[in-house]
Amino acid sequence: MSSIHEVSLLPDARHAVTVFKKNILVRYYSQQNAHYEIVIVNSGYGFINGSEQSHFLKPGDFFLKDPTQRYCLTALRNLTIIVIDIIPAGPFLFIRNIDSLMQALCSLYSVDRQPKNIKTDLDAAIILAQDIINYDVNTDDIAAQAQKEIALLKLIIFLRQVVTQTHDCPENTLLDYIYRHCEYKMDWDALCDSFKLSRRTFHRYTERNIGMTPEKIYMMFKLIKVQEMLRTSDFLVGDIARACGFSSTAQLSNAYRKIFSISPSQERVALTASSPLAMVKM
């Protein structure tokens, strides 16, 4: 069986479907091109910043990108993704209306939606992705091309089936909850109790898997939310500070500068002159 290799360049148009792995140390920027992408988080933790929203990423999450979209991935720790790159104008021999199929999927699993999670079936999804490149041969081999397109359809059907059946571990469910409610103060003991976890267990989990304490992750979540609002709204920095749970603009500015090395006001000036996705930092 072929393994999924890491690549540093975008696939070319010689194949309709290409599968590759990417280990992200700090950031990864997708390109706005004629490709669709199915992106599966193989390991690690981080964030996805689309055109409208930011979302927390964990193992087993997946999302789709259409040709009009771009995104930036920011790693917290050991973020590795599997990308199934689909070129609708490529040499498909048997799948008809690939554009319509992928557009329908993107409407469900877009980069701007909350990523879906298939963690308990992640290994099976990766095997199906490997099956696609098992038939990465010359397109003159019609039988192999048919097998490759069948493998792609199997992966798509599999993702649709398992996404409604997966239940994540309580630690990751709690991390999702913290990200969605990071503008509020956290009562850590009560919060862990409500997810049937001890505070010590949750602390060990985040230290081992993300390399941060829950308190530091919580602050990072708040600052990512601030960065998202700076990028997508015209609110004053003081209003953003209050909306994200900071007691003052000064408190926000100090915390923001420690992580991103510039102030929120400087961030907004830079955003005005640059692509929104280019300003996500770690």
UniProtKB/TrEMBL annotation:
Organism: Superficieibacter electus
Residues annotated as domain HTH araC/xylS-type: 172-270
UniProt cross-references to InterPro entries, sorted A to Z: AraC_XylS_family_regulators, Homeodomain-like_sf, HTH_AraC, HTH_AraC-typ_CS, RmlC_Cupin_sf
Database matches in SUPFAM superfamilies: Homeodomain-like, RmlC-like cupins
Protein known as: HTH araC/xylS-type domain-containing protein
Keyword Transcription: yes
Keyword match Glycoprotein: no
Entry keyword set: DNA-binding, Transcription, Transcription regulation
Any Pfam family: HTH_18
GO terms assigned for molecular function: DNA-binding transcription factor activity; sequence-specific DNA binding
